[in-house]
Amino acid sequence: MCGIVGYIGRRDAIPVLLEGLRSLEYRGYDSAGLAVIHRNRLQVTKTAGRVQDLRDRVNDKAKATIGIGHTRWATHGEPNDVNAHPHTDSAGRIAVVHNGIIENAEQLRDALTRRGVTLVSDTDTEALAHMIAAEARADADGNSASLEDAVRRVLRRVEGTYGLVVLDTEHPNELVVARNGSPIVLGIGESEMFVASDVAALVRYTKQVVYLDDAEVATVRAADYRTTPLDAQPSGAGPSGEAARRGGARKAPTTVEAEAGDYELGPYENFMSKEIHEQPEALRRALRGRLDDRFATAKLGGLNLDARQLRSFRQVKFLGCGSAYYAGQMGAVVVEELARIPSDAEPASEFRYRNPVVDPDTLYVAVSQSGETIDTLMAVQELRRKGGHVIGAVNVVGSAIGRECGSGVFLHAGPEIAVVATKTLTNMAASFAMLALLLGRVRDLSAASGQRIVAGLRALPGQIEEILATEDEIAEVARRFADAEHLFFIGRVRGWPVAREGAQKLKEVSYVHAEAYQAAELKHGPLALINGSMPSVVIAPSDELLSKNISTIEQIKARGGPVIAVTNAELPASLADAVIRVPRAEPELEPLLLNVPLQLLAYHVAAKLGRDIDKPRNLAKSVTVE
Ligand code: G6P
């Protein structure tokens, strides 16, 4: 999705902006642009191509120490040079970059047109540039509003979501930024400041950051920044903005965990491979300090729930999108097993649009790697409005969903750059196993069973290492089946969310059609599709359902369908066409291990087919639009 960068300081702004945009490429985009102030004039460069194309186009003789940049993922208007950000007013005084969607854009654009303004793009953002310019213009008495006041006045007429940065040639020593629903973070340097929509663009320069809150505006200068609420009173005419700025707060910065190296490939070919291989370490981080041997339970302080509250929930419901939804489904299975509380998962989008009955005795868990996914965020807001108890399971600290929930479990997976979720999914599933353990231990799960799960969780990172060590064999299986046009992923109970996530991974990254089915449902329709060119990946853990899964494999084989079994059981060699083995875990934790070879399978099919692995077509890392 769209990315924002801004810089003000002493450095050459263009390389800083380009570098920032490069580090935001992973989020998915279709055009890019930047604007700087060079010799008191705006210099805007845009392209419907990649950041590299922008780099080629930029006038490298332009020397500037202030500027803004953007990567756009088209919503209003097709991806072309004109619709790319930054957008400017007609006089070329103001430039704006914006993430989010202005819902009353049509009315705002019509009002501008009626006043004789010519709009050159199809975007909602361009309207903002013209409106800010109009507000900033001097009135008949020669009084001009401060840039911040001008922005504030405009934003009061705007409905929708935004994270934005405004550049003004008349105020070349400041950037004005604002946030409502789309993240904006300030990076605090030594006599220089950075602005971004994602810390990825800042960490190489500074670890000190300030997250803007919704409905907050900030004026950023090289040596200072001030934040004020959007509804703070503009200070009227005269050199008025000064008063508002003086009244603003200098919020204390927080230190980000991420390192610049987290955003570098190192020895890996792409980020998906890197992140698959980071799983043991990422999982250790998620478990660290959270396993309690003495009471055979989990410690999840971020939940802010005491034992009595934990006991009061009569249901647990997970909400998320894409892989986060499938992780939620894994969570629901393990919560039911360990805590014996009814639990299920639902796509956050379905939940929010169906006017849900919100139950005060249900614990709702909003699951999101980015913490920005709009459908999940809206589900959280709907829940809070209706008095539901919702906690977050998010990876990005300071993200909208994490902040909106106020309590929850951080995933500690480290930055995930590849569009498809790998290490974050594993950490989600592990976090839900810990949540299930905790909910179980305040109820009827015995200490002995709790201890078994604690030990089982602790063993997982090493077991994932064992699976990763078999990558070559999995790659071989992937190559054998890479030509298939369609695949089934089959699982039941614990294996069902694993099958769904496996199919999702293959679809996302290799564009091969994959469909997940519950094993027993196969015979109620889809079996008709089985033939020699429809391989099935069957998830067959060594649990009490193994014999059922073996009969499923036999049913598929009897109809000539090739079978790839993913298992930790000793299956007869002749049963399947390929067998991918994983180590034995505690049965309730097996989904975590069974999922890992499916990541590698998808990865190697995509590699064989020559796909752009980190940036699958049509997909974005975090979907912040409806
Ligand atoms: C996008 C990605 C998916 C991801 C989903 C949820 O659609 O392509 O891979 O699972 O968003 O993202 P989140 O950040 O909320 O976990």
Jot down its keywords.
626 residues; alpha/beta; eight-stranded antiparallel beta sheet; six-stranded antiparallel beta sheet; 19 helices; 35% helix; 21% strand; globular; binds 6-O-phosphono-alpha-D-glucopyranose
What's the quick description here?
With 626 residues, this protein is of the alpha/beta class.
Structural class estimated from helices and strands: alpha/beta
Number of strands: 26
Helix content bin: 25-40%
Question: What do the pLDDT scores average to?
Answer: 93
Strand content: 15-25%
Descriptive overview:
There is one protein chain. This protein has 626 residues and is an alpha/beta fold. Helix content is 35%, strand content 21%. The strands form five sheets. Strands 3-2-4-1-10-9-11-14 form an eight-stranded antiparallel sheet, with helices on one face. Helix 10 packs parallel to helix 14 and helix 15 packs parallel to helix 19. It is globular, with a radius of gyration of 26 Å. About 1% of the residues have low confidence. The protein binds 6-O-phosphono-alpha-D-glucopyranose. The site of 6-O-phosphono-alpha-D-glucopyranose has 15 residues, from helix 10.
Please outline the helices and strands.
Elements: E1 3-8, H1 13-24, E2 31-38, E3 41-47, H2 51-57, E4 66-72, E5 87-88, E6 94-99, H3 105-114, H4 125-136, H5 147-155, E7 162-168, E8 175-180, E9 185-188, E10 193-196, E11 208-211, E12 216-221, E13 224-229, H6 241-247, E14 254-255, H7 271-277, H8 279-287, E15 291-292, E16 297-298, H9 307-312, E17 315-320, H10 323-339, E18 343-347, H11 348-353, E19 362-368, H12 374-385, E20 389-394, H13 400-405, E21 408-410, H14 423-441, H15 447-468, H16 471-481, E22 486-491, H17 495-510, E23 513-518, E24 536-540, H18 546-558, E25 563-567, E26 578-581, H19 590-608
Parallel strand pairs: 17-18, 17-19, 19-20, 20-21, 22-23, 22-24, 24-25, 25-26
Antiparallel strand pairs: 1-4, 1-10, 2-3, 2-4, 5-6, 6-7, 7-8, 8-12, 9-10, 9-11, 11-14, 12-13, 15-16
Helix pairs in contact: 3-4, 4-5, 8-14, 8-15, 10-14, 10-17, 14-15, 15-19, 16-19, 17-19
The protein binds 6-O-phosphono-alpha-D-glucopyranose (G6P).
Residues 321-324, 368-370, 373, 376, 419-421, 619, 622-623 line the site of 6-O-phosphono-alpha-D-glucopyranose.
